[in-house]
Design a protein that fits this description.
By secondary structure, the protein is mostly beta strands. Helices cover 8% and strands 45% of the residues. It is built from three helices and 34 strands.
């Protein structure tokens, strides 16, 4: 009898709710929710809520890609840093895990890396488990405010349950600060030739290298960069690795270094150097004045690569933070902030000026394709939806002097333009009319890329609600920008008199 009365009362309650909160109000609540989420990408990685910046501690182990990231779970602005955590089997779909590392008495948890300690060099493993080791920067903000210079040190944490939980090493810090204000972002790998762990560390305006046999005790071995590359801002987030040049057995070492400010189109960006590593330090084969950019857009920063990808796979896979410190804290999202770029395959190729680095989305992106739209050369405009992959080919006559490209747009007249400026001899992304841009004076404008082209130019691009990643000629040029339209840019159209040779769009839902 009690059960029947309870069901009856609940039925009356539902009826009353229907009168008190009519459908229009429910729809309004849905709209408010959607407004908060309207800028969230559909297939790029974003935090479930809160703030996110640099990717950290990326490694592969036991069939899973691990992604950690700078994270403030409590608000959507940069604040006390934690390490957020997510896992994936295919680099495309991610499962959020609990926060991995929290601030403690030594400071916030800044950027760093993680490795699989296969040899248990640390002695922190167990007979039945291979230890996973995270190495990161401690940032003591109280010491910073008090005027001390040694407020950044390096600490480690370890996991014996495949990365589910992490325990901080009792002997932290493992690398103390000699009195340098910027002393951070350790990226570690095992160097087989010298049987040692190598750490690349961003130190003010250059990179220092350290060696260790056990990840617990470190000795300085060399430095690079004071007179090389771009120096418009602080150096951050280094990564050092070896790659073969496409189509050959020749290999080179690549050093990634992020810089803020000082990017090619203002604000944050990532430069790279090609050269050699002798087990102690890096040397560049390019001149001191040569500046090479991994991505020319405004929104690819602090990117590093996954460690411990099996030799049978052999790829060097990169991911960056899709934002810029010029405006990262002001972008118009509510309960979450920032996304990561697509994972990208890095490779080397020869040019007349020397060996260069190419980056292009990994083959796993093919799994995102849900439908195909062939772009006929006789057409100029298509309805493509808010999230898709595209390819457009243009024929270019010799000494071409005409602008050309494509635009993504909505019915409100908001547009992002991608193309070639014949007068400036630049490729570009122009987001001047892309939608909301008054949150920062630094946001609006064009990302320019000095470039050359042959008789054909191929644009490959990935659009995801509020971002576009463009790759020209198979990734020899990359340009990444974000934008915030009032409604999704679901239209695609061609501009210019240059002949389009065709293309395709692959919808992603």
């Amino acid at each position: 009898m009690i059960e029947i009365r309870t069901k009856y009362i609940f039925f009356i309650y539902l009826v009353l709710v229907g009168f008190i909160f009519p459908a229009c109000q429910i729809e309004q609540e849905k709209e408010v929710f959607m407004d908060k989420e309207k800028h969230r990408p559909l297939y790029h990685f974003t935090p479930p809520s809160g703030w996110m910046n640099d990717p950290n501690g990326m490694f592969y182990f036991d069939g899973l890609y691990h992604l950690f990231y700078q994270h403030n779970p409590d608000t959507t602005i940069w604040a006390p840093m934690h390490w957020g955590h997510a896992i994936s089997r295919d680099l495309m779909t991610w499962e959020h895990r609990p926060v991995a590392l929290y601030p403690d008495s030594l400071g916030m948890i800044f950027s760093g890396s993680a490795v699989v300690d296969h040899r248990n060099t640390t002695g922190l493993g167990r007979p039945e488990n291979t230890p996973l080791i995270a190495i990161y920067t401690y940032h003591d903000e109280e010491k910073n405010k008090a005027g001390f210079l040694d407020f950044q040190t390096q600490g480690i944490a370890f996991s014996n349950d495949k990365g589910k939980t992490w325990e901080k090493y009792a002997g932290n810090p493992v690398l103390s600060n000699p009195g340098i204000r910027d002393f951070r972002d350790p990226k570690v790998f095992w160097h087989e030739a010298t049987a040692a762990w190598i750490m690349s560390l961003a130190v003010d305006d250059h990179i220092r290298f350290y060696r260790s046999s056990n990840l617990l005790e470190w000795e300085y071995s060399g430095s690079f960069g004071k007179d090389f590359g771009a120096h418009g801002g602080v150096w951050e987030c280094p990564d050092l690795f070896e790659l073969k040049v496409d189509g050959s057995d020749v290999s080179r070492w690549v050093l990634l270094v992020s810089i803020n400010p000082g990017g090619p189109n203002r604000g944050s960006a990532t430069q790279y150097f090609i050269g050699d590593f002798d087990g102690n330090t890096f040397t560049s084969e390019n001149s001191e004045e040569t500046i090479l950019w991994l991505d020319w857009g405004r929104d690819n920063y602090a990117g590093v690569t996954w460690s411990d990808i099996p030799e049978a796979d052999g790829r060097r896979i990169f991911m960056g933070w899709m934002s810029n410190w010029d405006y990262a804290n002001q972008v118009p999202t509510d309960n979450w902030r920032s996304a990561m770029t697509l994972p990208r395959l890095l490779s080397l190729f020869n040019t007349s000026a020397g060996i260069r680095l190419k980056n292009y989305p990994v083959i796993e992106t093919l799994s995102l394709r849900k439908g195909t739209l062939v772009l006929g050369a006789e057409e100029k405009s298509w309805d493509v939806g808010p999230a898709y992959e595209g390819r457009i080919r243009f024929e270019m006559p010799e000494n071409a002097d005409k602008d050309f490209g494509f635009e993504i747009f909505n019915q409100a007249g908001q547009v992002v333009r991608v193309g070639w400026d014949a007068g400036l001899k630049n490729f570009y992304i122009d987001r001047t009319q892309s939608g909301t841009n008054d949150f920062s004076e630094e946001f609006s404008g064009r990302s320019l890329v000095p470039g050359v082209h042959g008789n054909e130019v191929v644009f490959d691009f990935w659009v995801d609600v509020t971002s576009i990643e463009v790759f020209i000629d198979g990734g020899k040029i990359g340009i990444t920008d974000i934008f915030f339209p009032d409604s999704p840019l679901t239209g695609l159209r061609i501009f210019g008199d240059v002949e389009m040779m065709g293309g395709a769009v692959y919808t992603i839902q």
